[in-house]
Amino acid sequence: MKVVVTGAAGFIGGNLTRELLKDKTVEVIGIDSFTDYYNPEIKRQNVLSLGDRGFTLVEDDLSSMDLTDLLQDVDAVFHQAGQPGVRKSWGSEFETYTRNNIAVTQRLLEAAKSSTTMKSFVYASSSSVYGDAEGFPTHESDLPRPMSPYGVSKLAAEHLVTLYAKNFGVPTTSLRYFTVYGPGQRPDMAFNKFIRAGLRDRKLTIYGDGRQIREFTHVADIVRANIAVLRASPAPGSVINLSGGSSVTVNETLEVLASILQKPLSVEYAAKVAGDVFRTGGSTNRAKELLDWTPTIDIREGLESQVSWMESLPEALFDTHSNHAG
Ligand code: UGA
User: Is the whole model's pTM more than 0.90, yes or no?
Assistant: First the structure.
């Protein structure tokens, strides 16, 4: 089987590629443009660690490269590439979000349309499409009303994905990820920053009062769901929550982290950042029904896995500064 993973050098794309390559019958073509939203050296190392058995890297920009030939004979596309980051999507940055999240997805769909071999087109959507959700747990049929320009861009792309399923039969599945964490997590995300601060006895910053709730989802569970799509082939145009299974406040996660690190954390509170929602938490009924998926990793086990990974990072990658502190 031949599959394409966009964003293969990134956090989720890298973990997914590693897992896919465990199956010796799978050939992965990874596409990445190594943008500098955070230190591209992290992505270079990620790719190196994937080895080259079954793996081909195409270093190119999805917004301009030729995609039709590339997708012609593939069995699946896992579209994980995009411009992430909720809090940095305001102002002039938005242009990057429209290009890398919306326009790129449309280009991929156009190319996917003419493939005669494709059985799955998986789009990495986001819990941020819900914004201030109508209710909890949030169902896929609830009205999406994003709170950030990032969420708007992910939702716009998700609508495109569904349009190409309905109009052209592209076998799409949109997976709405709820705050993903674990080994490889981006350096602009909360747990990466908290663990880095904890391990080096530095102060960490909480935006707002720390009572905001997230349904953090471990990357291994996310990877498992992506692969389950290949097996289950949900109806084209399906939209599915991948929500971690336990609702916790940011303050509670710090208690767990302090107990794992066995030391008190130094915390300062700062203003809430525009675009941050108060709560996320999704129903996983549909994921269970369509993919036979339920989350398996709780916050303690998941944070332990991220701490172990971060403890093992070489110094040059540990203390890397993102261009956009997030
Ligand atoms: C994350 C990802 O960054 C998005 O790409 C993704 O689409 C989104 O999840 C999603 O689920 O849709 P976010 O929930 O903001 O976005 O993830 P974190 O950066 O891990 O932040 C979690 C919470 O911690 C937020 O309330 C944030 O304000 C807070 N936080 C973050 C801090 O208090 N301090 C920090 O230094 C960083």
Answer: yes
